[in-house]
Amino acid sequence: MSEDHISEEAPPEVHHYNEIGEVPWDIQNYWAQRYRIFSKYDEGVWLTDDAWFGVTPEPVANKIADHIAKYAPEGRSILVDAFAGAGGNTIAFALSGRWKRVYAIEKNPAVLKCAKHNAKIYGVDHKITWFEGDCFDVIKNQLKVLGPYSVLFASPPWGGPGYRYDEIFDLSTMEPYSINTLFTEYSMFTDQIVLYLPRTSDVRQLAKYVKGTEQATVMHYCMEGASKALCVYYGDFRGPSTD
Ligand code: MGP
Question: Are both 125 and 183 inside the same structural domain?
Answer without folding.
Answer: yes
